[in-house]
Write a structure and sequence with these properties.
With 335 residues, the protein is an alpha+beta fold. It is 33% helix and 17% strand. It folds into 3 domains: 130 residues, no CATH class; 131 residues, no CATH class; 42 residues. The strands form 4 sheets. The chain has a 5-stranded antiparallel β-sheet with strand order 4-5-3-6-7, covered by helices on one side. Strands 8-9-10 form a 3-stranded antiparallel β-sheet, with no helix packed on it. Strands 1-2 form a two-stranded antiparallel sheet.
Length: 335
């Protein structure tokens, strides 16, 4: 962030106008290189005359903006300002002044927008980026729950360490032990997220779709040594066995290196894709899918519970007998 040489307010990184007074960023403010308007949506704000106390404030704010123009005079005047959406702080400040007027209108990328579009979705996220301590790396941030292979925090979350749970909505294990990706559903969610955040000037659609094209049709831990099966120990009447519940990385590699296919894989037919079925790793007989079994720990807990129930029943009977005995003694005493 930089300091405005006119009012002393902080200026967001990449802004070309002061968000407080609207003064253009000059050499005194150490401006960053201007971004091309061809690749960035434009915000067009128009408003007419108003008796509101904010009217002269809005005029004064717009005076320093080069794209400011006034059509007409007096009460018939129509004011218009065109700004790149990277000037989100200035756009919000101006819209806060005039947004509630009947004569005001805001178009972003040719689409009529409201204060909600400035606060949430792509522009809201962009403002969080500008206010962060490290704006350049904000969109590419990797968290403990999101490996962020898309370069955008608002795209579908993928965590390779929790792939079995995380991608359960985008695929599952087939009968061959391959984790088949539901690319159709993933693509639909990607397109939906892109549409929702389309006003963000940092959104790189080409990069997102290029990463999507690199994703494999399936992951097979038997042939791909970067992956291994994730198992869970289960119990049956024939003993313990390891049940395959998913896959997990076998090596510590970047998410893109793990997910991108080393070679083009053969597409698995849809009839081979099934919901999860129990598979064994060790040579143990598997119980029937619908059979009922209870592990030893569960059995012990059940027995303990039954014992407590018997104790409570016995205690209740003893108390009942004692009460009846006392009643009989009282009756015999007064007879």
């Amino acid at each position: 962030m930089y300091i405005c040489d006119k009012c002393g307010a902080h200026i967001d990184s990449g802004a070309k106008f002061c968000g407080q007074c609207g003064d253009p960023v000059t050499e005194a403010d150490i401006p960053k290189k201007a971004l091309s308007s061809n690749a960035i949506p434009l915000a067009v704000i128009t408003f007419g005359y108003s008796s509101s106390a904010n009217y002269p404030k809005a005029q004064k704010l717009c005076e320093h903006i080069p794209t400011y123009q006034v059509i007409g005079e007096g009460k018939q005047a129509e004011h218009q300002v065109t700004l790149e959406v990277t000037e989100i702080a200035l756009i919000k400040k101006l819209y806060d002044l005039v947004g509630s007027w009947k004569s005001s209108q805001m178009l972003i990328g040719g689409k009529q927008c409201t204060k909600k579009d400035l606060t949430y979705y792509g522009l809201g996220c962009y403002q969080n980026r500008q206010q962060s301590s490290n704006p350049d790396n904000y969109c590419n941030e990797v968290t403990h729950w999101n490996d962020n292979i898309w370069g955008c925090l608002r795209m579908p979350t993928i965590d390779v360490e929790q792939l079995s749970w995380n991608l359960s909505v985008y695929g599952n294990l087939n009968k061959k032990g391959q984790w088949v990706l539901d690319q159709k559903r993933l693509q639909q969610d990607l397109m939906s997220s892109i549409k929702e955040n389309e006003l963000c000037p940092r959104l790189d659609r080409e990069h997102i779709m290029s990463v999507f094209q690199k994703l494999p049709d399936y992951i097979d831990p038997k042939t791909d040594k970067r992956w291994q099966y994730e198992t869970r120990q289960r119990y049956s009447e024939n003993g313990y066995f390891d049940e395959i519940v998913g896959i997990k990385p076998a090596k510590k590699l970047p998410a893109l290196s793990l997910l991108c296919a080393p070679t083009k894989q053969q597409v698995v037919s849809s009839d081979e894709i099934t919901t999860f079925e129990r598979q064994k790793v060790q040579q143990h007989s598997l119980p029937d899918r619908n059979s009922y079994y209870r592990p030893p720990k569960t059995q012990a807990k059940q027995k303990e519970k039954e014992r407590h129930i018997l104790v409570r029943v016995f205690s209740g009977l003893v108390k009942t007998v004692l009460v009846l005995f006392l009643i009989l003694l009282i009756i015999a005493f007064f007879a």
